[in-house]
Amino acid sequence: MIQTEVSAVTPFRKKLQAPLSKDRITVLQINLGKRCNLACAHCHVEAGPKRTEELSPEICDQLIK
Fold first, then answer.
1. Interval 17-54: pLDDT, tens
2. How many structural domains does the chain have?
3. What DSSP element (H or E) covers 15?
4. Do residues 46 and 34 make contact, with C-beta atoms less than 8 angstroms apart?
5. Other beta carbons within 10 Å of 15
6. What are the phi and psi torsion angles at 35 (to 5°)?
7. Domain around 50
C-alpha cells in the first residue's frame, strides 16, 4: 500500500522540467523572520529561538501586493 502511494507522487526532478509560471505555482512560502520555537539542524533558513531578525512591515506589504 505504501509503495503505491509513493509511486503516485511526481518526482521533483520531473516537476522542474516544466517552466514556472504564475498559474502553476501551488505553494508560496514567505519567511517573515528567523525566530522559531524549534532549533532543527536541517533548517534551511537557520531559524531558532534566539534569532530576532524579521522583515519590516514595508517589505511585508510589498510581498502581499
1. 777 677 777 788 889 999 999 989 998 889 999 999 99
2. 1
3. helix 12-17
4. yes
5. 11
6. -75, 135
7. 2-64
